[in-house]
Amino acid sequence: MASKSRRSAGSAGQSAVKTGAQIIVDTLIEQGVETMFGYTGGVVLPLFDKLYDAPINFIVPRHEQGGCHMADAYARASGKVGVIVATSGPGACNLVTGLATAMMDSVPMVALTGQVRTELIGNDAFQEADTTGITRPVTKYNSIVKDIKDLARTIREAFHIASTGRPGPVLVDLPVDVAVSKYNAKDSSEMKLPGYRIFAKGHAKQVASAAKAINKSKRPVLYVGGGVITANAAKELRELAEKAHIPVTMTLLGLGSYDQRKPESLDMLGMHGSAYANYAVQECDLLIAVGARFDDRVTGKIETFAPHAMTIHIDIDPSSISKNVRVDIPVVGDAKIILGELAQQVEYQEREDWFKKIAEWKKKFAFRYDQNSTTIKPQYVIEEICRQTTNKAVITTGVGQNQMWAAQFYKFIEPRQFISSGGLGTMGFGLPAAIGAQVAKPRATVIDIDGDHSFNMTMTELATAVEHNLPIKVCILNNGYMGMVRQWQELFYGKRYSKSYLKNPDYEAIAKAMGAVGMTVEKKDDVPGAVKKMLAEKKPCVVDFRVEAEENVWPMVPAGKSLSEMDGLDILERLI
Amino acid sequence: MKHIISALVENKPGVLAHVAGMFAARGFNIDSLVVGRTEDPDLSRMTIVVIGDDRVVEQVRKQLAKIVPVVKVQDFVGQPVVARDLMLIVVSAPPEKRPEILALIEVFRAKVVDIGQKFIMIEVSGPEAKIEAFINMCRPYGIKNVARTGTIAMPRQFKMDIREGQNST
Ligand SMILES: Cc1ncc(C[n+]2csc(CCOP(=O)(O)OP(=O)(O)O)c2C)c(N)n1
Ligand SMILES: [Mg+2]
Predict the structure, then answer these.
(1) CATH of the domain at A425
(2) Which is the CATH superfamily of the domain at B82-153?
(3) Nearest-5° angle of CA A552, CA A556, CA A558?
(4) Among the ranges given (A198-207, A476-485, A533-542, B84-93), the one the predictor scored with the smallest mean pLDDT
(5) For an interface test with B, which of A196, A302, A321 has the most B Cβ atoms less than 10 Å from its Cβ?
(6) Which of A178, A565, B153, B158 to pair with A32, CA 20 to 30 A apart?
(7) CA-CA distance, A317 to A335, in Å (whole number)?
(8) Which ligand sits closest to the CA of A423?
(9) Is the dihedral of CA A216, A222, A228, A232 positive or negative?
(10) What is the per-residue DSSP string for A464-520?
């Protein structure tokens, strides 16, 4: 990063008397921060004063939760650390959902929160909250800086911890007296993290036995999670899959790590994964898990997951290994390094029977929907978006059916193209995430495929998109329902749609009132034209697609069932 | 099975909360937890006794190691260690029972640390089983109060050293 060294030369690293606020800004610049997100308040005023003319692109959300999701998606889209600032008390509390979202999905983020004066801490001062206490379980690490001489070092440590190993959000709590006090010293103090270790290089013997197992396997499957994207290891994954000829299935967060147009792609696995991925996992003799954590939405009933398989698990987080399933060949390390080494040690195998079987499953159980319906099928909207963007858009999502259909019907080709709250499943993520991703990639086409009720949660951020002229597109798959909840109520609660239908506002009018473009699409025939118009828009654009209200996501592995016990396969077959 | 886990941690505020919070959040049971300073002012040692099968305890160990200010984690299971608890116990001791109680103290190599008209306060240290046994022996006299530490432990340094406590875990 040339710009980083140039920018840091002028400010940080010199000895001078500085306020804490100046040290914070200088350290952020030294760490290469070009863009950050945040919302002001009493105790962060000294910091915001220094940000007034700092060379940092600063985005103010309309709610700190939105800002936190923006910083999160900025990180997911760019691979850089996302930075969010909030004031003490209510500001810090509003970050909690966003931090938990980033924590569950291992996203590198630094959160800076203001805190009341050191001597008031513990007195229930105005806008005091025990921020480090509240956020400890939803951060990779947090700390409070009570002495200005620790300030620069603590912020450096935050960036280091956030972005290395298994990444995650790190919070630094900053009492206002530290921000206004002055310190005369070189702020090049070294990081001091005796308890922080990263195991990047895999054990050579383990890698060799993994390679041997792959070479011996007749029916291997690569099961790939978000860790491969985090590790920037998509190229190495492709080399391994192609060289050894292994089919690849991805978790929700793994989507984009392998080109889904390729024959080896089994698309997503799990509860709403493809039948061919789930069958392949259940019948494989070798499961190669990479940067994935055997989440219950992926494995179904854990006792019967991949019952015939020997398991290799490659992960940078030792605690991820053998947490949910017993692993035969654990390899702790960086997916990029280990996949690269494996690719060199494996041999090509035809595996003709295996690929033949997979091809049959793929044909029989492809994701399908009723193309002859007169109503707008939500899946159709996504297929049309995928077609018109030639698989190249950055897609963010809400949570629920919209998210699952986006994962099923958009075929991703590159890492960092699909940005979705997987582990926590945070409704309201889609719109702020689209903003964060667009800020990170100004030239990309960024589309939020959202649910009506997910959108309802954070739609105030449209104002942020308008203010910054971000050409994001929001496609609301408006079924009126909390669709995923309604689906469960239909299937498991005798169609008693308890509290899952709400009256929605006129989204077109809201969009227009906020200064964005708004459209409503009620007819199936209007879908392609609306998508085209939306893609041509330079302003933020919201399209309210009035989709089939009671469409279901298929296939579905009911909670607690084995992956092979999928419902809805008959429906898919009937639609051939 | 009982495991004694020893964690060297940075001597910083919030570390105990982090460790305790991790145990609570992940549903691990703590049998006892002792924190104390070490010879290095920047480091403290936590000795945590957990009960669980090997897989659970392996997770405990890994989750502990993952906490940033936790510097080193050891599970002493299967190793010769010296493990000790400390107890202060106040026992009812009328004059006619005193000789018996003092004999008991002698046998357990315990110590009288306070004495009054009706009570004796006794300090006992040793393996947990010894502490339990001492409590049982005191019961007939009437126990007024008990304060116990959890276990602290250290692996044996010299394999040839086979003085008391070798089976003390
Ligand atoms: C913040 C939050 N609250 C509640 C839920 C539980 N939940 C999961 S999906 C869902 C319904 C989502 O409705 P909508 O956004 O309209 O999406 P659809 O399923 O209809 O596509 C709910 C309430 C959640 N995931 N997140
Ligand atoms: Mg809906």
Answers:
(1) 3.40.50.970
(2) ACT-like. Chain A, domain 2 (3.30.70.1150)
(3) 115
(4) A198-207
(5) A196
(6) A178
(7) 11
(8) 1
(9) positive
(10) HHHHTT---EEEEEE-SB-HHHHHHHHHHSTT--TT-B-----HHHHHHHTTSEEEE
Exposed e or buried b per residue across B70-106, where buried means at least 16 C-beta atoms within 10 angstroms of its C-beta: bbebebbeeebbbbbbbbebbbebeeeeeeebeebbe
Can you list the alpha helix ranges (DSSP code H) found in A112-189? 131-135, 151-163, 176-180
For the cut 60, the answer to whether the pLDDT of residue A133 exceeds it is yes
What residue of A is the nearest CA neighbor of B17? A133
Hey, do B2-75 and B82-153 end up sharing a CATH topology, with the first three levels equal?
Answer: yes
A38 forms bridges with which residues in the sheet? A85
> Per this entry, what is the length of chain B?
169
Examine residue A575 and state whether it is found in any structural domain, yes or no.
no
A149 touches chain B (CB under 8 A): no
Q: Report the distance separating Cα A554 and Cα A75, nearest Å.
A: 31
Cβ contact, residue pair A323, B67, below 8 Å: no
Question: DSSP of A362-375, one letter per residue?
Answer: HHHT-----TT-SS
Interface contact B68-A319, CB threshold 8 A: no
β-bridge pairing A286-290 and A169-175: unpaired
List Cα–Cα distances, A153 to A44, A121, A145, A188, A193, in angstroms. Answer: 19, 22, 10, 7, 10
Domain boundaries defined on chain B: 2-75, 82-153
Report ipTM for this prediction.
Answer: 0.89
- Write down the CATH number for the domain with range B2-75: 3.30.70.260
- Kindly state whether residue A570 falls inside one of the protein's structural domains: no
CA dist A443 and A430 (Å) reads 19
Q: Which A positions 173-212 lie with beta carbon below 8 A of chain B?
A: 193-196
For residue B159, the tally of other CB atoms under 10 A from its CB is 7
Domain at A283, CATH number: 3.40.50.1220
CA B113 vs CA A5, A33, B24, B100: distances in Å: 66, 62, 37, 17
Residues A217, A70 share a domain? no
For residues A178 and A112, give the distance between their C-alpha atoms in angstroms, rounded to a whole number.
13
- The encoded tokens of residue A307 equal 């019952």
The answer to whether residue A348 is domain-embedded is: yes
Spell out which residues of chain B touch residue A316, defining contact as CB-CB under 8 Å. Answer: none
pLDDT of residue B133 exceeding 60: yes
Tokens of A559: 């909670």
**Residues A400-417: pLDDT tens digits?**
999 999 999 999 999 999
Edge-to-edge strands of the sheet including A394-397? A418-419, A394-397, A446-451, A473-478, A541-546, A517-521
Q: How many CB atoms lie within 10 A of CB A535?
A: 16
Claim to verify: residue A144 and residue A208 sit in the same structural domain: no
What's the whole-model pTM score? 0.95
